[in-house]
Every structure is written in structure tokens, then in C-alpha cells.
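Much of the work behind modern protein science is quiet bookkeeping, done one molecule at a time. The protein below has been through that process, and both of its lines are reproduced in full.
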Amino acid sequence: MRYMGIDPGQAGGITVLSDTFEVLESVPMPATLQDLLELISKYRGDCVAWLEKVGAMPGQGVSSTFKFGEGYGQLQMALTAAGIPFFDVTPQRWQKALGLLSKKGESKTEHKNRMKGAAQQYFPGVKVTLKNADSILIAFYGFQTKLL
């Protein structure tokens, strides 16, 4: 079984773990629909995915919110087209399960850096960036929960 973690959005990424806890692939979000479908389709078959479910954020314009929702739907369709079962998971749920909820008074930058540090700790041999840290942690959450 392989475990895919997806952090949607332009600044997000996709990570795939093997059943032996190895990172098979961890990349920034593909730039085109064709690239997205090709990446996800490589894992057709013995794979399950966890897709981070987030909503509009305060201060985002209508255009940004629409673009983010459009990308989220594209991810759902790519997973469906590839025959990969997926589960929506909120940031609060997977972060709580991994002990990574925001701390009182912690800035967004501090929180993101703490997430990056946690991903580096779990997977020291992997190049962790701000673009793939969350997807690595979401895949790790999926690996731990093994819902299927």
C-alpha cells in the first residue's frame, strides 16, 4: 500500500509514502492539469490519498478563493480518474493527531517552520521545503491512520 498526502494550492505539494515508511516522491504542486494527472496516475492501484480540506481564509479575495476551490476540485477529479480512493482531512484533524496544532501566540511563519522541522525529523533523508512539508505530514498522518 502507498499513502499519498496532498496539500492543495499553489504553495502546496504532493507526497507519496511506501508501506515501509519511505518517501517515494515529494514534489511541489504540479503547474498544469496534465502534469497533475500524470503524477497522480503513476500511483493508480495500490494507493490511498488524504486530501487536506481547507476553506476560504479571511482576507482572501473572491478570485483567490475561487482559484483555490477550482484547484481542490481538480485534485478530487484527478484522484477519481486515477481510481485512487481518497479521504478529506482538515488541517486541525491531522495537525492534532501529530501534535502540531498552532500554539498560542505563534505566528504563521513560526508555525510553518515548526511543521517543516517536524517533517525533517520524521524523514531526515528527504529535502523538506515549505512547499512539501505539509504534504509529507499529511501522508504521514495517512500512514498512521491506515483507514483502509
Summary: The chain has one domain: 2-145.
